[in-house]
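Quick check before the chapter quiz. The format below is the same one you will see on the exam, so make sure you can read both the input and the output lines.
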Amino acid sequence: MKYVVGPVTDLPPGASTIVYPDKVKSGIGVYNIEGEFFALKNTCPHMGGPLCRGKLRGTSASELPADRQPEVHWVRQGEIVSCPWHHWEFDIKTGKTIFESRQKVRSYPVSVESAEELKRLEAGVETVPVSVEGATVVLHV
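Here is the expected output.
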């Protein structure tokens, strides 16, 4: 099933939205990270919190340069979502935790369709009211 999220212009880089296709009652968070689109189920695997309502952030990475003085850098800004309930952090691009764990959030494929392609899909697509003037973000549920 395909679900129309809306025009690409409504979800600029760094933005996100939560949509509610019929088959996913908890919702799905759709994210634009530097022009690439990703989608995660809006349920934290830890205790079922509304993951996609959490803060977008980055994470820290350590480095040991040649002078042997450890350094910590802030990296991947806007690629990590932190669950608002217990602050478990997940990589938006993969759905995996950023700490050592087998826990993972379900991810969904996202495509950007042209207006012409969208018209061909409309017969079998669950949609929300949108105006299409160019490319459109489509979630594959």
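If your answer matched, good. Confidence is low (pLDDT under 50) at residues 128-132.
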